[in-house]
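Researcher: Structure prediction, please.
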Amino acid sequence: MTGLRKFGGRTWIVTAAALIVLLVVNTVLQKNFLEPSVVQSNLTTFLPLVLVAIGQTYVILGGDIDLSVGAIVALVNVVTVSVIAALGGDGTAVALGLLVGMAVGAGCGLLNGLIIAGLRFQPIVTTFATSIVFSGLALWVLPQAGMSVPEPYWRTYAGDILGLPTVYAIYVVAFLIAAFLAARPFMTRLKAAGGLRTAAYQTGLRLGALRVSAFVLSGLFAAFASLCLTGETASGDPLMGQSLAMTAISAVVLGGTALSGGVGGTLGSVLGAWVVGMIGSVIFFAGLPFEYQTLVQGLIILAALAGGVLVTRR
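Model: Predicted structure follows.
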């Protein structure tokens, strides 16, 4: 239990309860919901949001916010497919494309962090501006959707690694990274920087380095999510991930992380991402008209956020 508290605090319990309710409702609406193939399909759909939400958690815990993650996802996608195509599309090209994509994500996060922590710009304004820049770069690299990736790429993503579905392996890697960081002093210092910034500064914490590190992690997890989406769509798209930023923030808040910083954890964000995904699934299988689905989804998320806030305050 101590490990779970480090991983995400106790705020995840409310989110877990909401997820259980949604699972029960979904099981009633979708008779084959618990079949292994359906479970794997749903987890594959939710995976990019889970990864982006984990990365966003570190930024929010540090008292900042990152609105550029959706644009980073698009930029990493088009850069990755372009590099793979330029290098011939063989195994070496795929490996180099993945490395370049991750480097682009880290570079975008580093840029955000340096501007915000170094120049002391407002995070919400800065990341909104950089999202426009990253989106413009994505359109410059690949003006329109297309340029498919080699077959081994998407087959590996849809297949197995050492007998374990690739999607499950990615979940395991992401959870291990989050658990490792949660057990390090970095997480405690990041929460201190976000919750009590003046006091943290007076104790000698390197606030600038902590905030930059959080943005780099956000960029890396956004790149990770982009590579997953690339494996799912098997092509490049400069408009990919447009809604991921706000949806990820909703998932983080649903998971109990305070937007003011200093409170929460990645476990709650993962559960929050699953809750957001399950809400969409419930609405779809409930047979609501398409034009009302987004409205109802927004209202449910808003109600869940309000309920979480009330429970936390009590």
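Model: The longest strand covers residues 160-161.
Researcher: Thanks, that helps.
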